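Side project, low priority. Logging it here so it doesn't get lost.
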Amino acid sequence: MWLQLGGYYGATHAFDADALAWMPLNGAHPQAAAIVNIRPERCKVLLHLTQAQLDTALTNFREAKDIFDWLVERGFAKLPEKEEYRVDGAQLPSVTYIIQHIIAKPGLMDWSYANGLEAGLRAAQVGWTTEQVHEALEAKALLDAKQIKKTEETARPWIHLREALAEAGYGPMAKRDAAAVVGTHWHKSILFYLQGKSVDLTNAPEAQVQMMTQFTLWAQRVKLQPQRLETKIANLEPRRDGGWAGTLDAIATCNLEPVG
């Protein structure tokens, strides 16, 4: 989160949707930045950085970007092909894309492992026998050891098992995609609220209703006044690294409470 805020803080330009062009920020940096976690049971600031801390975070992010550039130059990473951030024909990596190549997230790795293990235990529920699962795991071991390729016939048992589990809604990818759909609905509800639009939650799940209640109360408490929403930003300095980009959920004025 520290690096993420540092990367956003280092933006030099913002995309003007009306002019369809990147416009310089002219050195107008925020006095503070925060990442807010919004859940049905509460709305909490996870990280709140002052301007001095943001300067340090930006320095740290530049170091991460240098490592990312080193990986790209040596073929260990590549610039994204489907990112939305393209400036003058050049493809810019997003802040998140850079960070995920530099820092492993143990929490996500544990979550993925746990859900993968759960999916494997459910193999019988999708019609797989113990022998078939054993054959699939043998194929996976060969794939991990790079003794075979995914396109080879010997890899098919593992590929088929993954496909069967995914179709049945099991495994980390299925749960990730389901969580992403929920997150998108929540994000849109908050965006409409901040835009001053009515938010119809008549048929929404109870968790979404509770989430909006918590966010509304929090926004009122900190006197949140949005100035720009869903703003695409980029660092377009004439540097060797070619810059980076990202999207801020909101640029606003508010009275942030201390993290604790």
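Brief comment: Helices lie at 2-9, 51-73, 95-100, 106-121, 130-144, 156-167, 172-194, 206-221.
Revisit when time allows.
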